[in-house]
Automatic annotation (TrEMBL):
UniProt xrefs under InterPro entries: WbqC
Name this protein carries in UniProt: WbqC-like protein
Pfam families: WbqC
């Protein structure tokens, strides 16, 4: 059984979904401290000005304090969804799959969940279904896992993998230095790292900007084309 563990992100980039597509179980790691100006409640899309690469789309939050966990924070009740639709509307006559991308957007955000962690988890579930990805979702904050044996940050994944009976744990390659391969080997769990494949695609004649939100991939490739991009990416194993 292949397992990955990730924080919930707002319309994350293609590599996030490539990793999700490579596993049997996906753990939403939500009961941890919220990182301000990270990817939990915002992402990047093309900027309307071709001389600028990108701009942020951001979910406004309420009741956020410095040391709050993701599970402690609420999504604002203001009309941010309509504002975001307006922010993306400049692509209506430029992106060939604008309609598909906005249908995807609407399905993912049109929900009445106010808790940030729950909102993001449901959004990711809906996104995965549309994109043809079907891992079993597990949510850290809803589980009664005994993680008292964790001694350093690289062991969260090790202990959760052992509890769920995973034979292989896959992590984004950017976090490789956090892990001790010998600790995984001693527990009979294979350690692997995912390398995202961000192949260029047309963005309306402008210079390609990689690593934008999955919304951008959908704008220019549609659902079927995005599914093909998701199947790319590679793993390496052990050290």
């Amino acid at each position: 059984m292949n397992l990955a563990i990730m924080q919930p992100y707002f319309f994350p980039y293609l590599g996030y979904f490539q990793l999700m597509a490579s596993v049997d179980q996906w753990v939403v790691f939500d009961d941890i401290q919220f990182v301000n100006k990270g990817w939990v409640n915002r992402n990047r899309v093309l900027h309307p000005d071709v001389n600028k690469e990108w701009s942020y789309i951001t979910v406004p939050l309420v009741g956020k304090n410095r040391f709050d966990r993701i599970t402690d924070i609420s999504v604002s009740d203001d009309n941010w969804r309509d504002k975001m639709r307006g922010q993306l509307s400049f692509l209506k006559r430029r992106a060939p799959f604008f309609g598909e991308a906005m249908d995807f957007f609407n399905v993912c955000v049109d929900q009445h969940e106010h808790n940030l962690a729950s909102f993001l988890t449901e959004s990711l579930r809906r996104a995965a279904e549309i994109l043809g990805i079907a891992p079993v979702f597990r949510v850290q904050s809803e589980a009664a896992w005994d993680l008292s044996a964790v001694e350093h940050s690289g062991q969260w994944a090790l202990e959760i993998s052992a509890l769920l009976g995973a034979s292989r744990y896959i992590n984004p390659v950017g976090g490789k230095e956090l892990f001790n391969a010998a600790e995984f080997e001693a527990r009979g769990i294979e350690l692997a790292f995912h390398h995202p494949a961000l192949q260029p695609y047309t963005q309306g004649g402008r210079a390609f900007v990689p690593g934008l939100s999955i919304l951008d991939v959908l704008m220019w490739n549609g659902v079927e084309g995005t599914r093909k991009h998701i199947q790319e990416g590679t793993h390496d194993f052990g050290n």
